[in-house]
Design brief:
This protein has nine helices and 27 strands. By secondary structure, the protein is an alpha+beta fold. The protein folds into four domains: 72 residues, no CATH class; 155 residues, Trna Endonuclease, Chain: A, domain 1 (3-Layer(aba) Sandwich), CATH 3.40.1350; 126 residues, no CATH class; 50 residues, no CATH class. 34% of the residues are buried.
């Protein structure tokens, strides 16, 4: 099927035109004897005029025709070309079907031209699949010859839509004319929205340059797809530019305001840091004085317990030496409330350098002032996270820069809670056996004694349970549970 053929004497003839485009009637080529000398403009094979059952006039190839692109085109494609040509004429243009370029390297489905010859626009009916690369290459070929193009389709979602100047069409119910539903847009203040219009109206605007192609810089509103190229009026392009400039100005004002607030906030933080520096120096001086005073006395029970059973202390001391270059020992002031239940690790001068495993529930008063300026080391990552989370939730005013915390890379074997082990690991345990409602003297043993199978022993030095073999060493209770010691 084709709407264009070449007559041997009259030149190009068009089946859709009342005068065939050459001042002749349809009957001059239809059912004539002998047949009218018609040939295909594409392949040169003979053609003859035909009329469909609905009265549609067209040209068909005579039998034995070679493979011709016109002959392979579908009826839907030909009908859409015919409608494009009709709409172009209604828009005031001269429309020529299946027109070739100057060098024959392209062919337009419909070539719409200005009667005055000032412009030419190819209307391409594209129903078959095509890649963005191919459709762009065909567009560039026509543009090189001074011919703009508009690609049109009535398929639901042509994938190439927007890759070139293009439009999607639909035929609304109970109407005869095609309507633009995608590709023609207007700017509505903050974004683009579709602007439905009849096909003839679109072509009228396009031929008069009242609409132009544009690459949107703001998104199209749902359900429209974001197309790379759309058709719109120049005033909407200007409106988008003004909107973007206003947004940019508002962004700069907002960023300047936030920067000023940040600078003011940083000034306040610097003042707080200066005050904190003085406070922390004072707190550290107090802790150092307490450590020096503790060294004048024999080591206390808590210091001995920390050195013997506080799991992870040795690893914390090694971490200080390896990673921070600080040679430290367990402080004699262990048990001082300013360490919040943790173990102070002091340098060779007796100055606290870190605290191992402080209890977040005991960070208050002097402990808060001191720990905010010291390194805190925890047995595990979970203990570190637990301390930080508890500090952020429970404390109304946490340190402005947070706590300096680290955790031991090597897991502490047998570690229980972050602030101590549950089982006794003393070198010389002082045991008592809890039997019924009394405590009896007990001692470590190589084998479990009879009482050990039924009752449990506890270390009086540490207060934790004793898991190793033990035996009772006396039958006289040393304490009645619930009563004062004898």
């Amino acid at each position: 099927m084709a709407f264009r053929a070449v007559h041997a004497e009259w030149g190009a003839v068009f089946a859709h035109l009342p005068d065939l485009g050459c001042g002749r009637r349809w009957e001059a080529v239809w059912k004539t004897r002998p047949p009218a000398p018609l040939a295909c403009d594409e392949c040169g094979h003979a053609m003859y005029a035909k009329t469909s059952r609905t009265g549609l006039r067209f040209f068909a190839h005579a039998p034995g025709a070679p493979a011709c692109s016109l002959a392979l085109e579908s009826a839907a494609h030909h009908l859409l070309k015919l409608e494009l040509a009709t709409a172009a004429r209604d828009a005031g243009a001269h429309a020529e079907l299946e027109a070739r370029g100057p060098d024959g390297n392209w062919r337009a489905d419909v070539l719409a031209t200005d009667p005055a010859g000032t412009w030419a626009t190819a209307l391409e009916a594209q129903l078959a699949p095509i890649t963005d690369t191919d459709i762009t290459a065909r567009t560039e070929k026509m543009r090189a010859d001074g011919v703009t193009s508009i690609w049109l389709s009535d398929r639901p979602r042509p994938p190439w839509l927007g890759a070139v100047p293009s439009i999607r069409l639909e035929r609304p119910e109970n109407t005869q004319h095609l309507t633009v539903v995608e590709g023609l847009v207007k700017f509505t203040g903050r974004g683009w929205s579709a602007f439905p219009a009849p096909l003839t109206q679109l072509l009228t605007w396009a031929f008069a340059r009242r609409i132009v192609t544009h690459s949107p810089r703001t998104p199209l509103r749902y359900p429209q797809r974001s197309l790379a190229t759309v058709w719109t009026a120049p005033q909407y392009v200007t409106a988008e530019t003004v909107h973007l400039e206003e947004e940019e100005r508002a962004r700069r004002v907002r960023e300047a305001r936030l920067a000023a607030l940040q600078r003011e906030k940083e000034k306040k933080r610097e003042k707080i840091r200066a005050r904190n520096k003085v406070t922390r120096v004072k707190a550290l001086a107090g802790a150092t004085a307490a450590e020096q005073a503790a060294r004048t006395q024999p080591p206390g029970r808590l210091w001995q317990a920390a050195r013997v059973f506080r799991l992870g202390v040795d690893q914390a001391l090694a971490k200080l030496a390896d990673e921070h270059g600080i040679i430290a020992t367990v402080g004699f002031s262990t048990g001082d409330p300013r360490y919040a239940g943790g173990v102070p690790l002091v340098d060779e001068h007796g100055v606290p350098a870190a605290v191992f495993a402080p209890d977040p529930g005991r960070v208050r008063g002097e402990a808060f002032l001191l720990l905010a300026g010291l390194l805190l080391i925890f047995p595990s990552k979970a203990d570190q996270r637990r301390f930080e989370n508890a500090s952020n939730i429970k404390k109304k005013h946490p340190p402005i820069d947070g706590y300096r915390t680290e955790f031991l890379d090597t897991p502490v074997t047998g570690a229980g809670r972050a602030w101590g082990s549950r089982s006794c690991t003393c070198a010389t345990p002082r045991l008592v056996a809890k039997i019924h409602n009394a405590e009896y003297p007990a001692a470590p043993s190589e084998q479990m004694g009879p009482a050990a199978t039924l009752f449990r022993a506890q270390c009086r030095t540490y207060g934790g349970k004793y898991d190793k073999p033990w035996r009772r060493t006396g039958n006289t209770p040393i304490k009645q549970i619930g009563r004062p010691e004898a």
